[in-house]
Structure formats: C-alpha cells, structure tokens
Amino acid sequence: MTIKKLKLHNFRNYEDETFEFGDGVNVLVGRNAQGKTNCAEAVFYLCTGASLRIRHDRQLIRKGTECASLFAETECRFGRLTLGADIYENRRELRLNGAKVARAVDFLGNMKSVFFSPGELRIVQDGPDERRRFLNLSISQTSKTYASALLRYNRILDQRNNLLKERDVQLVSETLPVWDEQLSVYAAALIRRRREYLCMLSPFAADAHAFLTDGGEKLELGFDENYPADEGEIARKLLAQLSSAYERDMRLGYTTVGPHRDDIRILIDGSDARGFASQGQTRTAALSMKLAELEIFKQISGEPPVLILDDVMSELDLPRRKKLLARCEGVQCILTCTHAERVLYGKTCNKIRICEGKILR
Q1: What's the whole-model pTM score?
Q2: Tens-place pLDDT, residues 14-62
Q3: CA dihedral 315, 120, 321, 296 (to 10 degrees)
Q4: CATH fold label, 1-112+308-361
Q5: Helix, strand, coil proportions of the chain in percent (round to 5)?
Q6: Which pLDDT band, with edges at 50, 70 and 90, does 342 fall under?
Q7: Is residue 159 within a helix (H) or strand (E), and if so which, with residue range?
Q8: Neighbours of 158 (CB within 10 A)
Q9: Which residues contact 40 (CB under 8 A, 6 or more apart)?
Q10: Where is 296: in which H helix or E strand?
C-alpha cells in the first residue's frame, strides 16, 4: 500500500499544498512547528477517519476558514484508490473513489497505516484506556466486523450507563436485563477478536523488541482477564457478571464489567512495564508493538501498510535508528524530522522541506 499524492486545503496550517510521495522513505523536514506533523496527521486521518491528536474534527480546520479538505491518491495490490474528506464545523463528508461514504466504518481500513510518535509512549505508560484505544484502532483497520461490533457495543453501553443514573429503581431493574442481553453478545465478539489479535501481536512484538535490544530484553504481551475460549461461553459469563454487578453499578452510575474495562499486560523481563520500565525501555516497547502491528497488517492484507514515524528518530540512539530504518525496507515510510542528514546516514529518500505550512520547492 502506498500513497502517491496528498492534497491539503485549509487543513491545520496548510492553505493549499500538494505532496508527492515515493514508494520508499519520504522525509518531511523543517524546523519545529512548521507543519510536518500536520501532514503526517492528514495521512493517518485519510487511512482511519480519525486523528490521534485531537477529539473534535473542527480543530483540524485552518483558523479563519470554514472547511478543511483532504484528498489522497493511493495504490494497493487491487489497484488505485482515492480517499477524500471534507471537514466542517459540526459534520464531515468522507469519500471513497469519489463516492460519498455513509458510514465511517466503511471508510476505515481501505488504506492501512501504522502511526508512531513520542506520544504513543502512552500505550505503555498510561492507563488501560490507551491500550484499549491501540487495540480498537488496530483491529478495526483489519476487520470491519470488529469495528461495527465496537460501535454497537459503545452505543448500548452509553444507553445502559444513562439508565443507571435513573433514580427509579424499579425501572432500572426491569430494563437492565434487556440491555445486558445485547451488551454481552457484542462484548463477547470484541473479547474473542482481541484475544486472537493479541496472540498474533505478542510474538511479532517480542521479535521486534529482541531485534531492537540485540536480545538484551524480553517483551511479553497478554490479556489481563481470563475468559472462556468459546464466544458463547464468554457471553454467558459476562451476562452473569453484569447481573451480579447490578447493585454496585446502580450505586456508581456506570457499568463496571465488560471489555471497556479490560487491559493488556506489558511485561519486560517478567516485570510490569508501567511500574518498572525506564523511558528508553518504554519507548522501545511501544515501538516494538507498532512494528508488530505493521507485520500483522502485512500478513492479513498481503502487503505492508504506510508507516508514519513522527519525530521518532531524535529520541533513539544511533544503533536503534539504524535498526528501525532496516525495518522500513520494502515499506512506504513517511518520516518527520528537523535534520534529515542526522537520521538517514546517506539512505536514499524523497525529501520534502516544509516551512510555515508550505512546501519549499
């Protein structure tokens, strides 16, 4: 999978710019706060329909304008594909090959990408929300079934949580079982797919981590919750847990049981990375998980995704920079940095210089 051309109109600090990318390493170079990360963000947005940096799409619109437009010409093993997005104050329009896409789930994953920046250290350092976000976005790029189940689960969960805030205890007691039946079915589908994905991710991450550390450390990933193997049994177990948690959930006003509470264990040499890992170990573990994600996308799609590395090289020592570049072979990579010569060491690349939201030609 490769992106050939990217057009941005009133996106972030870009007024009107067109980027042309090569199949190998593409380096966006320039001083800080010039728009390098904004370009990388635009690529990721067109691949996933989401940004890792903001909560509201309207923040992507250039100040003083009413609409931001993104457009990309891409190529995969099935042929050429165009992706587009128009973002307004309170809505957006997504397009695939020029046709409007009604559901975001149908836009997601047509062009796959793996994004890594210093902010992705949150996967290791922060709470379970970040690790679930990583899993949800990664799996959704390869499975529309998972993305749909996740959307339905979250909608039912919101309705259940709203019901729990009701003061009419009889109404809550009579209505909760109806929501729980539906919730447990979608929850079981999410849990089964997450477990399957982690079984794929763990060995790839361990291999990448061993490569980056010269075998000096061992990385292990696993589910923190013990669920039955069968999806139907998972649903029955969750239904029983939801039932037994009624009183607690009504007292707290939210649902305390389900995959929205699950976590991933990240162990380095057998110790919990959150409480044990140094900054360097955390960075290497998070990067290993992203490189593992890349390998899974290769395996499932039959071709590599676009790899986006935003301001990563400056945080790595020389040996790990070279090792990371070795892992970029055969992958289209969009890399941002302030000084290309310091990170590429003569490697052939397509260099794009950016200054104040403009490409220097």
Answers
A1: 0.92
A2: 999 999 999 999 999 999 999 999 999 999 999 999 998 888 899 999 9
A3: 170
A4: Rossmann fold (3.40.50)
A5: 50, 25, 30
A6: low
A7: helix 144-164
A8: 11
A9: 28, 115, 117, 308, 310, 334, 336
A10: helix 279-301
